[in-house]
Amino acid sequence: MSHVIEMNRVSKIFNDKKAVDGISFTIGKGSITAVLGPNGAGKTTMLSMLLGLLTPTEGTVKVFGLAPKDVKVRERCGAMLQEVSVMDRLKVREIIALIRSYYPQPMDMEFLVRATGLAPADLNRYAEKLSGGQKRSLAFALALAGNPQLLFLDEPTVGLDTTARRRFWDTVRELAAGGTTILFTTHYLQEAEEVADRILLFSQGTLVADGSPEDIKARMVKQSLSFLPSGDAAALRGQLLKLAPVIDCYDKDGRIHVVTENTDEALRAIFTGGLAVRNVRIHQGSLDEAFEQLTHNHEEDMKR
Ligand SMILES: Nc1ncnc2c1ncn2[C@@H]1O[C@H](COP(=O)(O)OP(=O)(O)OP(=O)(O)O)[C@@H](O)[C@H]1O
């Protein structure tokens, strides 16, 4: 299968700083990928190379098997970037019509209006008179105007209210179901977890995790178990701390929690030892915790 996006050992150096450091990944058709990472991790730099706005210092970037600057690639891509600048002295309808006219098979105007939530009345307004949220809806309409097969979205929902945000993600899901490939950056972990089928987690220019939200949560080193004590809780805690796989244990919300690097081994030790526990639960940890842990571990490794 040919990949929609292919990054092979890509680095970008600004002066002496490596903003992106030897990154490789591929992305397949119709997937929704979230790019996450703290400020300065290299997300926008990576996106700019995919859009052909920046040239890699090392490595190769291919989009639809071609260089990102190729006109055949540009015709098939749409982008919504962080900075929204609208053309003055043009009405919303005129701007959308203008952008649609640049493409061989533009997106249906009715779909654009419905999908982006622009009200019919908004179409006759001058773009500079729109609110911040409406300007972002217009930017989304412009990103879709060319009927793209690949859509780049850089922190797309900043400034959108709850309704607009929900409509936005519904449209993204609908497009992906129709075969459009989506790559978006976000700082909202909940969005990544709900919408993306894959997460690329960046830290200091490198890719520290790549997988489904579930995979990434499962990579948490520390998971926890909790249960209700069947007998004396203090005695049970003492017994638990003597088991090799148990790192720590504590009481919370009437349950005893056990911290471990391996829930399977901890459970085995508890049952083999005949400890009096019931109502066992395994806590995977949140994506938030996984994200903190993975980027923190990476930063610590870099200091060594
Ligand atoms: N044009 C540039 N010249 C010099 N350094 C740059 C340039 N663009 C980015 N950088 C540096 O590269 C690093 C990565 O920046 P980038 O904007 O890609 O991060 P990011 O992950 O998108 O951050 P944010 O979440 O804040 O948008 C930062 O240290 C930044 O200062």
Automatic annotation (TrEMBL):
SMART domains: AAA. The keyword Nucleus does not apply. GO terms for molecular function: ATP binding; ATP hydrolysis activity. InterPro entries: AAA+_ATPase, ABC_transporter-like_ATP-bd, ABC_transporter_ATP-binding, P-loop_NTPase. It comes from the Bacteria. Residues 5-229 form the ABC transporter domain. Keywords: ATP-binding, Nucleotide-binding, Transport. This is ABC transporter ATP-binding protein. It comes from Paenibacillus jilunlii. The lineage of its organism: Bacteria, Bacillati, Bacillota, Bacilli, Bacillales.
